[in-house]
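During the reporting period the student researcher (J.K.) took over the structure-prediction task from the postdoctoral fellow and processed the backlog of single-chain submissions. One of the processed entries is reproduced below for the supervisory committee.
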Amino acid sequence: MEPRNLIMERDGARNRPRVEIRPAAGPSVWRGDEQVARDWILSLDAEDCAEIEGAAAMLLGRRLETVGAQDFRLPRVAPKLNAMAETLAQGAGFVMLRGLPSARMSPELVEIAYWGIGAHLGIGVSQSVA
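J.K. obtained the following structure tokens:
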């Protein structure tokens, strides 16, 4: 069935404006089979990972809520994260970050690393009750 535009005419009794409802369009409207992995997967290389791990290590012991993008300095990775943020906000609305070697990192370091990456994408809010 083809999408169609629906038009609600002005209702004389209630004096409502005419509203035209159109099918959603743009980069945030997509089907899975239309997605190309190279457009939504961000792969980190060894230097990217080293920079992220180093930034996280410098912040060990700090409360996550006190860490912002300005604290989690990533001169090499930040442009990639900016592109990622653009895709999230103006593009398909999803991305996959691949390559961070979390298996070899301590849980605390992983926590700070992901928080710091997130700080470059938006404002973090802890969901922990502690």
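The committee noted the following: The helical segments are 37-40, 46-57, 78-90, 107-119.
J.K. will present the remaining backlog at the next meeting.
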